[in-house]
Amino acid sequence: MKRNLRRSAAAVLAGGMILSAAACVPKVPANKNLISRQEENGRVVTMFGPTDRSNPDAMNAARTAQEQTVIMAEKQLELTVQFRTYTAEDYKDRTYDEVCLDRVRSNMDDMYLLNPDAIQALGEEGQLADLSGLDSVKNLRDVVKTANMVDGKLVAIPQEIVVYGLFINQDMFDRYGLEVPETPEELLDCCRVFQENGIETPIGANRWWLENFVLAIGYADLYNGGDTDRKIAALNSGEEKLSDYMRPGFEYLQEMIDRGYIDAAKAYTYEAIDGEGPDFLAQKTPIVMAYWGAANAETAYGKPEFNMTVIGFPSSRGQMPVVSLSGYGISDNAEHMEDAMATLNLMISDEALRVYSETNKVISPSKNVETECIDALKPLKNKINENIYVLGSNANMKVEQWGNICLIVRDLLNGSSVDACMEKFDRLQEEILAK
C-alpha cells in the first residue's frame, strides 16, 4: 500500500518547483553536446533534474531562473555544472521519482532536484548529505528547515516556496455582500449564499488538491500552536494516530459534498486547473484552489476578467496557506562533494535567490529576499511572512503526507465513508511504523 501511494505522489505536485521548471525550458536535442572540451577537462558537478540546459549557441536563448543561478555558481567557482535530464521517453513508464530514487541509491550524480516524497525516503535511508553547514543556510526561512529535516539533518533546499491557497472571485463575493472566509464555518455560509443565488456548485475542485482543506483543518494547531516537534514525534512513534488529525478535514469535505458545494463526481475526474478552471474564468464558479504560480501564469489564472483574491484555506486559526517543498539534495557519496556543496551554497545565496525570485515571481526561501507580487497574492504572501502556514510535505514525518492524503481523499470522492478512510490511515501508519 505504501509503495502504491508513493508512486503517485509526484503527479500530485503539479504546479510545484519541479514541474514548473520543466514547463519553461526549451527542448534541446538529446545528442547535442553543450559542454566544450575545455570544460569537460576541468571541474565538473553533475546535476540530475527534469530540465535540460539551454543551447548556448542559440540566438537570444531564454535562460530559466534555475539556469541563471547555475551560471552564477559556475562563474564564481570556475567549474561546469553538467545537466543530466529526465525525459519520459528515455525512462518509459518510470516516474521521475522512481528514477531519482534509483540514481541516488546508485550514486550516479552529485546533485538532484527532488520531490518531497523522494526527499523523505532518501533522507531516511541516509542517502542524502547534511546541508546544514552551508553558509547560505543561515538566511533560510524556518519553514524550509522544518520541512526538509530528517533525523536532525537538513537534506534538501528549494529555490522557491510553493504555496497553495483558495482563489476567490472577489467581484462575486462583493455582489452578494460576502467577506472572504476565515474559518471552515464561514466558508460553508458563503457557499450557502451562492447556492441560494443560483450558483449550483460554489467550489470548483479537482482530484489532486482537495487535500489542502484536510491539511489546513487538521494541522493548523500542530504547526501554529507550539510544541510541533513533540507532536510530530508522537505521530512517528504511534503514540498519536494520524487519523485523529485527518478526521475533521475529511468530515468537512464530506459535508461540502453532501450539501452540493463540491461536485465529487466531477472532482474525481478533473485534472488540476484543466477541469474547474474554465468555469472559474467564466465566472460560473466563485472559488477554486491552486498554487501561487497559477496567479501569474497566463495559461492558468494570470489574466482573469474580474478582481481576484488568493487566501489561505479556512481553519480554526484563520486563513492557512499550505506549503509543499521540493528541493535540491546532494548524494551522501557524491563524487564531487566539495564542489557540489559550493555550487548549491551559491545557488541558494541571497544574490542568486533574488534573481530566481524576481524572474519567476515566487516566494523566496530566504528571509532576506522580498519580491513584488500582484495584489491578489498579497494575503497569501503576508501569512508566509508572518510564519503562518501548514506543511503539506514534511520529510521528518515517517508517513508521507501530500501523496497519501490526496489519494485517500480520492477514495472519499469515489464514495468511501469517512470511517473507511480513517481505517486506511490507521493501517498505513501501522504498516510504516512496523518497518
Q: What are the defining features of this structure?
A:
435 residues, alpha/beta, five-stranded mixed sheet, four-stranded mixed sheet, 20 helices, 11% strand, globular
Describe the structure.
By secondary structure, this protein is an alpha/beta fold. 45% of the residues lie in helices and 11% in strands. The protein contains 20 helices and eleven strands. Strands 6, 7, 8, 9 and 11 form a five-stranded mixed sheet that branches. β1, α4 and β2 form a beta-alpha-beta unit. The longest helix is centred in the middle third of the chain and has 17 residues. The N terminus is likely disordered.
Compact summary:
By secondary structure, the protein is α/β, with parallel strands linked by helices. The chain has helices at residues 2-12, 17-23, 37-40, 65-77, 88-91, 96-105, 116-124, 142-147, 170-175, 184-196, 211-224, 228-237, 242-258, 264-269, 277-281, 337-347, 350-360, 378-385, 402-413, 418-434, and strands spanning 44-49, 80-85, 111-114, 149-150, 153-154, 162-169, 287-291, 308-311, 322-324, 327-330, 390-391.
Tertiary shape: globular
Strand percentage lies at 5-15%
Mean pLDDT: 88
The CA-CA distance between the termini, in Å, is 13 Å
**Total count of strands:** 11
The stretches of 5 or more residues where confidence is low (pLDDT under 50) are 1-17, 19-39
Give the class from helix and strand content and strand pairing. Answer: alpha/beta
Main sheet characteristics: 5 strands, mixed
